[in-house]
Amino acid sequence: MATRAPAPRIVAVSNQKGGEGKTTTAVNLAASLAAAENRVLLLDMDPQANASSSLGFSRGEVEQGTYELLVGNAKISDVIRTTELPTLAAVPASADLAGAEVELAGLEQPQTMLRDAIAPLRQGKGARFDYVLLDCPPSLGLLTINALVAADTVLIPMQAKYFSLEGLGALQGTIAAVKAGFNPALGIEGIVFCMYDPRTNLAQQVVKEVRSHFGGLVYDTTIPVNVRLSESPSHGKPALLYDIESRGAQAYLELAREVLARHTEARA
Q1: Alpha-carbon distance 219 to 193, whole Å?
Q2: Considering the domain boundaries, does residue 41 fall inside one?
Q3: Cα separation of 145 and 104, whole Å?
Q4: pTM, two decimal places
């Protein structure tokens, strides 16, 4: 009898505050995990579709994607698309995702639609993945709630700024509410500082405060401000395919190594 492959680790990349490096992290961490020969699926839950365009999928050209999956018009196997990286696949966002919040609100169990839709990935049916990353919108709505209900853990990108601390507090409250109501096993995957400039006293103070509260959940790897990271989405490529030698690409490769090392330690 064949041994069933382990279920993928499903990680929601989320921060309710905009401009924290969420989509950049989702795209480049997914690509970096894939470059380390993990089978990775990136699912775009954000109506802005920036993760999709960062992988070469124009929103206007996507006929079936996250929206169709969420409302039950397509199966997960119907909406998975290949990318330039052989081990990285994506479910891009179609234009209709912009209206999904309103449509979901009218359903009987609107919070669990994504969990139900991607259940085949956990059951060993269809395409097999080691990691599924969910790129969430920068807001608290039904799309974000769906991602948190479906996920095993939440990875939190943030800047080392004062208002980012407030956003982190709000996200903690959301995670607690989802744990209480729908997903008691939901945990924090980790916290990564993005667009980090260690030369400022404020940045160092924010990092110190977050480490004092979250300890080992804060990654040692930080993501610097990097022009190549800003340029690569306009070329429809993750940074490692655009300029692998850039500081941004190297930082995300290092973050992927740290993520994988933590999982190896947890399994030991």
Answers
A1: 8
A2: yes
A3: 11
A4: 0.95
Answer yes or no: is 123 within a domain.
yes
Q: At what angle do helices 247-267 and 22-35 cross, to 10 degrees?
A: 70
Range of the domain at 56: 9-267
Could you tell me if 110 and 144 are in contact, meaning their C-beta atoms sit under 8 angstroms apart?
no
Ramachandran angles phi, psi of 9, nearest 5° = -85, 120
- Is 47 domain-assigned? yes
Confidence grade of residue 5 (pLDDT, cut at 50, 70, 90):
low
Q: How far are the Cα atoms of 11, 40, 230 from residue 237, in angstroms, in the given order?
A: 21, 16, 11
Give the count of beta carbons closer than 10 Å to the beta carbon of residue 183. Answer: 19
Instruction: Look at residue 191 and tell me whether its pLDDT is greater than 70.
Output: yes
* Each residue's pLDDT tens digit, 57-106: 987 889 899 999 999 999 999 999 999 999 999 999 999 998 898 888 88
- Does the CA dihedral 21-135-9-174 come out positive or negative? positive
The CATH number for 134's domain is 3.40.50.300
What is the Cα–Cα distance from 74 to 69, expressed in whole angstroms? 5
Total number of domains constituting the chain: 1
Is residue 36 included in any domain, yes or no?
A: yes
CA atoms within 13 A on the CB side of 227: 0
**Pick from 17, 44, 24: which is nearest to 225 by CA?**
24
- Using left for φ > 0, alpha for ψ between -120 and 50, and beta otherwise, residue 37 falls in left
Average pLDDT, the chain: 93
Phi, psi of 42 (to 5 degrees): -105, 120
Contact between 83 and 89 (Cβ < 8 Å):
yes
pLDDT grade for 123, boundaries at 50, 70 and 90: confident
